[in-house]
Amino acid sequence: MKSQHDLDFYLWTQATAQALRSGRFSQLELDYLIEEVEDMGNSQKDALESNLIRLLQHLIKWKYQPKKRSNSWKASITEHSLGLNKAFKKSPSLRRYFDEILEECYEDARLIASRETGLALSVFPQECPFESESILDPQYLPESD
Q1: Residue 144, in any domain of the structure
Q2: Residue 118 falls inside a structural domain
Q3: 92 within domain boundaries
């Protein structure tokens, strides 16, 4: 038998919220509720990774393609830096996760920047050349080498 969770997710969320509000805990589908709460945390992590990769991608392009700099790159750098800072205000524990994934996200951004620019991957350093505090500064723009 399929659960309401599987048949109509939105309706399930509303019924679950109502059951929680009214203290009808026996009506909760705890396995699904636990899964959804965990998914919410994972969604925050996924959004952080996506913002960080995009930010690093544009920082790389800004640094290594100075003749192609554009206001859209500058705006993207600012937007994604602000997005990370807002995520940390809402969920301060995500800052530790940022530190854990910085190098992995840099590797992804480096590959994307190489493909997008047509520059060899070897043009970009293997380790992230940007300090964490600089990455999180919405005013930061790296200088060319």
Answers
A1: no
A2: yes
A3: yes
Whether 18 maps to a domain, the answer reads: yes
Output 93-99 pairs: Cβ under 8 A, ≥24 positions apart: 94/44, 94/45, 94/48, 97/45, 97/48, 98/48, 98/52, 98/132, 99/132
Q: How does pLDDT run across 12-52, given as a tens digit for each residue?
A: 999 999 999 999 999 999 999 999 999 988 899 999 999 99
Domain count, the chain: 1
The DSSP H or E segment spanning 90 is helix 71-90
Q: How far apart are the first and last CA of the chain?
A: 63
Domain that holds residue 54: 4-135
Whose CA is closest to 113, among 56, 40, 47?
56
CA distance 11 to 81: 36
**What is the SS3 assignment for 22?**
coil
Indicate yes or no: pTM above 0.90.
no
Residues with Cβ < 8 Å from 97, sequence gap 6 or more? 45, 48
CA distance 131 to 96: 15
